[in-house]
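Model it.
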Amino acid sequence: MAWTGREAPETRRRFDAAQLRGFTSAVLQSYGVPADDADIGADVLIDADLVGIDSHGIAHLPWHIGYAPGFESGVVNPTPEIKVLRETPVSAAWDGDGGFGTIVCHKAMSTCIEKAQTSGLGMVTVRNGRHFGAAGYYAHMAVEHDLIGMAMCNAPPIGLASGGKRRVYGTNPIAMAAPVAGDTPFRLDVATTAVAGGKLEIAGRQGKPLPVGWALDQDGQHTDDPFILRKNGGLLPLGSTIATSSHKGYGLGLMVDILTGVLSGDGSGMFVPRGQNLIQGQWFAAWRIDLFSDPGEFKTSMKQMVDAIRDVPPVDEVERVVIPGDPEELARADRSLNGVPLDEETIEQLIALGEQRGVAFPAPVPGGGA
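Modeled.
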């Protein structure tokens, strides 16, 4: 990873993260989500905004089927009864009962952490899940307990087979987090397609074309249309083309589909009759470092590694080389202090949602953007 240092100046209006969190929790409670669960759900969404993952934050609340529209249509259950299908001291298989994804998955990773603390390892699959936000949030939960964590989910097929014209897998993210001595954690959260689908949503809201290498149209031609997924196009795998190793992202995407969909009992994302439900299969894991090595030595070695990589000389047009998690921590520092930037379309949608649910949307921070 590299940091260009040449990002465009931020002109969007900014909002206080705590106020956005309170607004989100109040909206969720208005749909019948219990207060404690609503606070967790709000934290998952606003954390994504704080670390710069705008595609998975509060912008989803008013329009994504996994959030407000899902509660309204009955697709998302505000008070699910999670069913434990199988369980051992180190594993569990759950049916999420169509519950609000951030809540069910927070409970799943919490269970992984409890099992890891007791037995060394915890792994949970969830079938019949709903959209869970940014996968990195759950992996990071394990690090807060000095564990290594991973999280994955499958999604509706919008990713193309390597070299093919047909959608065969979702963005299918992989997240992993590990502690580092005296430093921020290693925090990886990546789609296995060339880009997360939410990046197209952002480009569409901002009226920007897509870079070449993100998507193909239905005829298999490169396109810069941010609305191409609505026109039967698809996202390229991570790697983009066969010449640049798209088989790797394609293979990783199918691996995630196996662990989250096939293993959980939902089945491959290609064959799940999703309709408008956006059913997800999910997989979580946490484990103690001392199963394999001394935790102190591990974290010290991690620190040695990340420091050495940050010292790598950058190529032209790049300010510095960074570690997965560095850009997110820079974003968190800025946005915690100066507010979370939101697109005007998102602001309008949130104001309208608040008016519908009887919850006032907060004013922007003074001097925060346009």
